[in-house]
């Protein structure tokens, strides 16, 4: 039997709990103000959304432009249940309802559309996303275009933090599992993986439904953190925002999605002092980054403790990093010499 | 029956606007396989240029349309050169230009707002810093083509945001209304037709005829068709691929500019965020007819316009968008390459 408590797992646990402790400490001593806490909540929700879209786009290579709709399903399910039943039970039930409905919706969408490829798939998911939004817009229980307000605020940073951890555990383990590898092979070459006997449609549907369910979790958190939800929040523009985070961080890299959500969130926060120029600066930054670093911030890089086999390895880490930096410097030097010659 | 004909007339006039915008989408997609999300915003810019021409410079409608077309053509080429070309086929000079222009805008805005400088000083600082950035890029980055089409798509989204919010900063976020230039209606067998509708229809048909002529009969049209079939082979035959792509952008954008003025005249209202909805609809129209196929975009535009007015007229305007999307999905599932598209076999 495979040992599940390995050193890398232990490292991750220590890392996650340590980061949480640091966060709480900073809030406790007042370094992170209330405004920053709201920003952090927003960033956290974006992390979940980006990671869940990255599962669809970066791991299995399916281009979805309707991701915000699943977030909307989660937000409305969570909001409606929470208004009837305030408190953690309400949020859990709402999350369950959101997961169920979004999984069903994703299944209905995935089975016919995932036969399409590339841009056509993007367009079809865009259409489905908008249809879901229009349905929400015209239902009684969702209160139409006015949306829901006064949703009890149950989610706090702790809930959001541990949902992020849960999402990352699910997605990263999926990436390294047999279905995950099948998805990656579909991304690399669909025809070849079909020829190798991989049931491509089944794995694409699995990735799509899993991604949609995680997005609905983010929606529940959104509804219970920000009190008000409206159908327009979950329109095409929101799908685009999530997509920008994923591509900005690097498709396929979960580390990239987390870092990109943080960076974009902080940029957005800092730009709040210039309300008129905010979106222009943001747009120009997107263009510049895409032109000069099309792979995204992290490319394929993934933060990993998997190399660590024993405790001695941790002690050896600084030397390893030093070697890596030296290697990069040497490569740069070589390159310059080549160009000069 | 009268109501049916009335809906057809309304559908044809809104459909011709969709068709004009869809042509730009389809031409760009046909030639570089990019969903140009900024296209809807170029149409919005066209509407504003027409608005300024008519209300400030008191031009006639036709000359306003011409102005908007020229301005949008230039804008389209600038966008292509500064944002899309550096991704598709970068050169050192191209990257320098992108770093200079984008860096200038970025540094100018940030410097002006954070350091509270006046325009001149912010401009000087931005110019110096962006020149430095440009030369840094020029001397350190080796240009490398990038096949990642999603990066190009995100760039297009960035351009779209940029145009929307730059226009909002210049003109303010409020709705504006076109000065009423074309009053009057004609009644034909109980069907009311406004002069604006007649104008829209005539101009659209004229532009489509000109476009068909350019694409089918001229040398540049042949170059465009060659590049969209196989860019590498066209380059080997002596076609200047980059110039052909720029001209495609110019033509597509000028059509969008004309559509912008026409929609301003028809609906009398415009705002900086109007490009998104129309862009999306026109894009659906392009997919409906078969993206990359010029007659398909025309057919798709009219079909979407008529469907929309029919649903709004006979059922409920709340569901007109949903019906359009459902039609889109049905088309995509049954015939992914669009109504007029050919099914292309995948080769290994």
Summarize the structure.
The complex is a heterodimer of chains A (341) and B (348). With 341 residues, chain A is mainly α.
Topology, pairings included?
The complex is a heterodimer of chains A (341) and B (348).
Chain A: H1 7-28, H2 34-59, H3 67-84, H4 88-113, H5 118-137, H6 157-175, H7 178-188, H8 190-195, H9 200-226, H10 236-249, H11 254-270, H12 278-292, H13 311-340
Chain B: H1 2-32, H2 39-55, H3 61-88, H4 92-114, H5 119-140, H6 149-171, E1 176-177, E2 185-188, E3 191-194, H7 195-217, H8 219-229, H9 231-236, H10 241-267, E4 269-270, H11 274-289, H12 294-314, H13 320-334
Biggest sheet details of chain B: 2 strands, antiparallel
For the secondary structure, the number of strands of chain A is 0
* Residue windows where pLDDT falls under 50 for at least 5 positions of chain A: none
What is the domain tally of chain A?
2
The SSE string of chain A, one letter per element, is HHHHHHHHHHHHH
Sheet having the most strands of chain A: none
Oligomer: heterodimer
Radius of gyration of chain B: 21 Å
**What fraction of residues of chain A sit in β-strands?**
under 5%
The rough form of chain A would be described as globular
The portion of residues assigned to helices of chain A is over 70%
The separation of the N and C termini of chain B measures 53 Å
Query: Fraction of residues of chain B in helices?
Result: over 70%
CATH architecture of the largest domain in chain A: Orthogonal Bundle
